[in-house]
Amino acid sequence: MMESALPISYFDDQKVREVIGLRYNEPAWLIESRVKALSNYRTLPDERSPLFNKYTTANLLDTNRLMIMLDGTHELDDELKRRRDEIRKGIVITQAGRSIEVKGLSKSLEEEGLVIKGIMDALKDDESVEIIRRVSSRIDTGEDKFLALEHALFNSGLFIYVPKGMVLDEPITIIRSLPSDGTLVERNIVYADVSSRVRIVQELYSGYSGDDNNASNGTQQAYFESNECYIADNADVEFITTQGMSSNIAYFTNRKAFIARDARFNSYLGLFGGTLSRCKVDNMLEGFGASAEHFNIIFGDGTQAFDLTANMMHLEASTRGRVLSKAIVKDTSRSLFKGMINIGKDAKGSESYLAGHAIILNKGARADSIPALEIETNEVKATHSASVAQIDEEQIFYMMSRGMSRDEAKRAIVFGFIEPLLKRLSMDARIYTTYLVDCKWRGRQLMLRSDDVMREIWEVEEESRRIESDIFEKHYKYR
């Protein structure tokens, strides 16, 4: 009988074939893809670019302490059950350990072609597995060590297919709960077909009791995730992620989006929890007129470390890209932002913007921001900016002289710092971020909930939208 969790060092080519491939009755092409990915994982360094070696925090992860979960179910705790039950709009997917539950997927949507299932189940379905095989050829696991790990050892995740022309007005919400021990390796695939539209909200949580249990038995808990979005011609996808994991979790994610002609992709990543977060975001603008925006907010305290890479790759003409990162660090936490705009030789008429800004709340914290441009053609617009600054004591003094406490003044400055980014987010992402930043500031649990604070934020947001609408209507009447 095979154990339910095994160390990474256990796996070699033969064990991948036997323990994972044959265990789940996978097609031969996928088994060989796993073997190749494992080889890449063994040989690749934590950070491929020598420029970033002295900055990276990926080497803080001790892979010898990771136990990869192969089996086992995990029950939602009461708080997450409450969170699931209070979401009354759209489709709600609950992932607890390796188990998956889908609520709100109507029969009519299934008959129209919407597919939502666990990726291991999708590999047993002829139509789904053909899509997975086709898109898998797009991934080069030789470009990143942890992408290779995710493709070699995944045994859970989601497959979402939105058929041609389908417009989902309500979001698909994913609540991911990690078990109290062990390491999950997951692969999620979203395929939005021609002229479809979908909004996905992903909430990442873990157990909040006994955060030091794993430390006592010598293991490290981690969540490895490969997120792949394939956006066909004229499709529109928004992907919102909030990460509120507990303080013992290492979170590693590779996020790739392939964006076709006239398609749009907006992504947002809010990083608040975990002990170590390493995120690599790659947007490939492959079709004429494609556009993509990526925004992220980092809020670190204690000894947290965040390592974020964001690449915007313009491969065809008249594409549009925007990357904006904001980081807040306090105590002895660290943040690293590495951004790259690449405009290829066939991408004339493209426009791109990249910005990484950080604010340091005390002297023990550290932030680095490293933007870069690679331009291989002319007739383009590309700009980047970066800044790292300590909080302004003169601003604090001014606010305190007007009756604020020091803590209230610092909080107001932090919200003023992220406000330009919040304005660019969709309403859901803006409200969720405001709520989680407030939770982090006040030391509350990093979990979205429909409490008085959330209701107050919604009311302020709706009032703001109403005022803006009134101003427009009055202006229109006078014309």
Automatic annotation (TrEMBL):
Domain SUF system FeS cluster assembly SufBD N-terminal per the UniProt entry, residue ranges: 111-174
Single Gene Ontology BP annotation: iron-sulfur cluster assembly
Domain (SUF system FeS cluster assembly SufBD core): residue spans on this chain: 182-417
InterPro entries, alphabetized: Fe-S_cluster_assembly_SufBD, SUF_FeS_clus_asmbl_SufBD_core, SUF_FeS_clus_asmbl_SufBD_sf, SufBD_N
Similarity annotation: Belongs to the iron-sulfur cluster assembly SufBD family.
Name under which the protein is recorded: Putative FeS cluster assembly protein sufD
